[in-house]
């Protein structure tokens, strides 16, 4: 099995082609501005409270009010400039009140109060400038991330709920640890040679992964219409990868062709094997008898891969995924997600309707998140395929 790693995405700018509301939400989320102001102000207000209590409880012989200068720095991390000034004004009032309580001016130490207030005011103004710069950087970061997401969305061209004789349900999510671009890819095309499916996983991350995915998907969309067999389709993609992708980069891939009713042809290129689930929930892992190297490494192998012709009935569900699913670790034990064990009861009877299929992929994805504790460490693609009622009528 070839291990591959990828990245993630976020959202934001005008050039992205994303809805305006989504761009704005992305910018807010990047800078925590989607949280209520009182939650963002919480750390600074807590600092004011702690310093005030410490000064009050230590008695008048301890002057701790100058510690209030930490408040502007804390506020600059999460607050907008206007919000920061309001919170810091409250902190300044607390500083003056503590100074009176400690009788600083009465002890002819007014210079301490003046120095503390001057330092506090200067840090407040400087922190307001930093808060403004922070928000601009967050907006720029969200903009770049959304361009990446828009590029990936345009690249994938998500198919509709049905293509040819097939019904589809998809869950495609990116890992949540950074705003990067994912390397999972898939495409479903109705061609003169039958309905053809590609699921792939690019090694690498960022723009390099997008470039490789673009090469693979572009070659597949051309070859799928031109070539008569899956092997020649894959061979065309291999040639494109060798020409346009840097040495050492590769893409695991699984090809499927639905040309005849009641059957499916599979061709493996080092990818996660698909799972077939019957109406009764019986699971069959469709392992390749002779696994082949990923796309981009074909020059290292001799011979040619062999495809598999398998029965695929009207009540069966084909589950395709990437390694972000099967290598997702349990949030406590660290065990991999047991897709073959979980898919049966969660996916059975999903072939009855489009709504059932969509519900099934939702249950499977929710179970994956429950396994990981709600977060994914890698991109994950789940693609469920059944035959439509039109194809059932021919069986």
Low-confidence stretches: 1-18, 176-180, 390-395
Distance between the termini: 36 Å
Task: Provide a count of the helices.
Answer: 11
CATH class of the largest domain: Alpha Beta
CATH architecture of the largest domain: 4-Layer Sandwich
Give average pLDDT, whole number: 82
Large-scale geometry: elongated
* Whole-number total of structural domains: 2
Strand content: 15-25%
**SSE string, helices as H and strands as E:** HHHHHEEEEHHEEEEEEHHHEH
Kindly report the CATH topology of the largest domain. Answer: Phosphatase 2c, domain 1
Radius of gyration: 29 Å
Strand arrangement in the largest pleated sheet: 1-2-11-10-7-8
Number of strands: 11
User: From the helix content, strand content and strand pairing, which structural class follows?
Assistant: alpha+beta
| Main sheet makeup | 6 strands, antiparallel
Helix coverage percent of residues?
Answer: 40-55%
CATH superfamily of the largest domain: PPM-type phosphatase domain
Task: Briefly summarize what is shown.
It holds the Pfam family SpoIIE. The chain contains eleven helices and eleven strands.
Helix-strand layout with pairing:
Blueprint: H1 20-30, H2 37-57, H3 70-75, H4 81-101, H5 110-156, E1 162-163, E2 166-173, E3 184-191, E4 194-202, H6 206-226, H7 230-244, E5 251-258, E6 263-269, E7 275-277, E8 283-285, E9 308-311, E10 317-321, H8 323-326, H9 339-347, H10 354-372, E11 380-387, H11 389-394
Antiparallel strand pairs: 1-2, 2-11, 3-4, 4-5, 5-6, 6-9, 7-8, 7-10, 10-11
Helix pairs in contact: 1-5, 2-4, 4-5, 5-6, 6-7, 9-10
């Amino acid at each position: 099995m070839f291990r591959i790693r990828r990245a993630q995405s976020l959202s934001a700018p005008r050039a992205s082609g994303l809805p305006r509301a989504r761009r704005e939400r992305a910018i807010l989320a990047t800078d925590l501005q989607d949280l209520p102001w009182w939650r963002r102000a919480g750390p600074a207000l807590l600092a004011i409270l702690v310093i005030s209590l410490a000064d009050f409880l230590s008695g008048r012989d301890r002057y701790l009010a100058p510690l209030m200068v930490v408040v502007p720095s804390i506020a600059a991390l999460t607050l907008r400039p206007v919000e920061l000034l309001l919170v810091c004004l409250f902190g300044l009032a607390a500083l003056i009140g503590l100074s009176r309580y400690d009788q600083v001016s009465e002890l002819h130490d007014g210079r301490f109060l003046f120095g503390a207030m001057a330092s506090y005011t200067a840090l407040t103004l400087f922190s307001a400038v930093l808060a403004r710069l922070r928000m601009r950087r967050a907006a720029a970061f969200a903009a770049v991330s959304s361009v990446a997401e828009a590029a990936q969305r345009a690249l994938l061209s998500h198919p509709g709920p049905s293509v040819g004789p097939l019904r589809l349900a998809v869950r495609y999510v990116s890992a949540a640890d950074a705003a990067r671009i994912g390397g999972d890819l898939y495409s479903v095309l109705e061609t003169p040679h039958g309905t053809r499916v590609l699921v792939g996983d690019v090694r690498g991350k960022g723009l390099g992964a997008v470039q490789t995915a673009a090469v693979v998907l572009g070659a597949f969309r051309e070859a799928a219409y031109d070539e008569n067999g899956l092997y020649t389709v894959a061979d065309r993609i291999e040639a494109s990868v060798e020409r346009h992708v840097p040495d050492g980069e590769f893409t695991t891939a699984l090809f499927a062709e639905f040309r005849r009713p009641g059957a499916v042809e599979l061709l493996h290129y080092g990818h996660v094997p698909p799972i077939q689930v019957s109406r009764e929930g019986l699971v069959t892992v469709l392992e390749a008898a002779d696994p082949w190297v990923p796309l981009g490494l074909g020059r290292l192998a001799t011979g040619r891969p062999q495809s598999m012709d398998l029965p695929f009935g009207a009540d069966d569900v084909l589950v395709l995924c990437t390694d972000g699913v099967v290598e997702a670790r349990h949030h406590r034990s660290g065990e991999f997600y047991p897709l073959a064990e979980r898919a049966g009861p969660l996916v059975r009877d999903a072939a009855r309707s489009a709504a059932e299929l969509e519900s099934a992929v939702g249950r499977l994805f929710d179970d994956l998140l429950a396994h990981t504790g709600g977060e994914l460490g890698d991109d994950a693609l789940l693609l469920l395929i059944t035959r439509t009622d039109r194809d059932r009528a021919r069986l």
